[in-house]
Amino acid sequence: MAKVDRVLEMIAEKDIRLLDLKFVDVLGMLHHLTVPVEVVDAEQLSQGFFFDGSSIRGFRGIAESDMILRPDPATVVCDPFVEGPALSLMADVLEPGLREYGRDPRGVARRAEEYLRQTGIADTSYWGVEIEFFVFDNVRFQTGPDASFYYVDSAEAHWNSGRVPNGGYKVKHQQGYLRALPIDEQTDLRTAMTRQMQALGLVVERHHHEVASAGQNEINFRFSTLTDTADKAMLYKYAVKNVARAHGKTATFMPKPLYRNSGNGMHCNQSLAKDGVNLFYDPNGYANLSQIALWYIGGLLTHADALLAITNPTTNSYKRLVPGYEAPTNLAFSRANRSAAIRIPVSLSPKTTRIEFRTPDPTANPYLALAAQLMAGLDGIRRRIDPTAAGFGPVDIDIYHHAGSAAVQLKHVPSSLRQAVEALKADHEFLLEGDVFSEDLIETFIALKEDEIRNLETHPHPVEFEMYFDN
């Protein structure tokens, strides 16, 4: 109740007029419900607010549509994008009677953290996600029975050097990483995004231009616990999109919006701790990793095919996961090696020793993606899966330049969403431990993904006209 009282105090202190309650659907799309403060009291904040769950993808049917949003007072911040002024709170989705709803992604994340404590292995998991995105000046697309196309443009793109006056300062092909002004035209835009992220409670540590040729960016925020990191990932995307829109631009987290350019990843740094001690650290281990960390890696890579259906959940995701462009296509672990699916970053202290799973992308629902990775890692610890014995390395050479050689014989990530979904069908028992995920949620997720796959597979593609029209 103390946290609820704090929300009421903020309403009075800051003359708040609105509460904005945010939640996500099964696929990770952010939704919100706005409530005037005149109808809000402590009981309402504790009991929640009714909404129609039948209109949310993957939730309830029309015959059982009443559902509840119960705001989490610990997540309260001022929302810079809602006129009011307004407070923003992340909300849990509940059934009538305040029962947990098995398809609520935030509930999955919280249950994963509780399951971790129940195992006795650790009491806390820490997560730092590195989210990349593109900002374009012009975006147009259309799909219909008679036409299909997309068009994107960026003022800083190299293809505009011959189209505009004084076009000399452009990002050359794949040479955008850490470029300075005037090449990096989006420095001030990222700073504006940073300020709004700070207003939303994120501790931003740095921002910079990324590798690709046209408006690829990255802003890093400080690591935290699992559910809190997922909350902040949703607010990160919320801020990026709204600031871009305010500046007359459009942001996208699509993994591969540009052909022959680097795509957007969501690299997931992770570690386990117990009583404040980092369980992944061992000064005598490979790359200072403990045996627990190696077993955790074994679980991640053993279940990677199924995991990717959740961490790389779009058909576009697999256009990023192709050789080159620093996208991991082989399942291996390695010290400080960006060509491996799991990289062990150089660490300056025992506290910061961690692993980085580089395969995920930001179209993933962060609550489900982080929870699924944790469950795979814990399964590796429980079963003591040795990643070296399982054929995952370590591989301390550039995999891109040795792929297929006798020195590197590795397993590959799925080449399509269909392959990943089929793997999830066959391998998801590890997600069901501790009732973290449910069969119902997994079946719902798979059905939604199969609809997307069929939609793409049944549409003619412009490239098919180029290849086959005159046959």
UniProtKB/TrEMBL annotation:
Name the UniProt record assigns to this protein: Glutamine synthetase
Annotated positions binding Mg(2+): E130, E132, E210, E218, H267, E356
EC number annotated for this UniProt entry: 6.3.1.2
Swiss-Prot/TrEMBL keywords: ATP-binding, Ligase, Magnesium, Metal-binding, Nucleotide-binding, Phosphoprotein
A Pfam entry, by short name: Gln-synt_C
Domain GS catalytic: residue ranges: 105-471
Co-factor: note: Binds 2 Mg(2+) ions per subunit.
Catalytic activity as recorded in UniProt: L-glutamate + NH4(+) + ATP = L-glutamine + ADP + phosphate + H(+)
Species per Swiss-Prot/TrEMBL record: Symbiobacterium thermophilum (strain DSM 24528 / JCM 14929 / IAM 14863 / T)
EC category name: ligase
Annotated binding of L-glutamate, by residue: R320, E326, R338, R358
Residue numbers bearing the O-AMP-tyrosine modification: Y400
Gene Ontology molecular-function annotations: ATP binding; glutamine synthetase activity; metal ion binding
Biological process, per Gene Ontology: glutamine biosynthetic process; nitrogen utilization
Binding site for ATP: E205, F221, R222, F223, R338, K351
CC annotations in GO: cytoplasm; membrane
Residue intervals of the GS beta-grasp domain: 14-98
Family to which the UniProt record says this protein belongs: Belongs to the glutamine synthetase family.
Lineage: Bacteria, Bacillati, Bacillota, Clostridia, Eubacteriales
Cofactor(s) named in the record: Mg(2+)
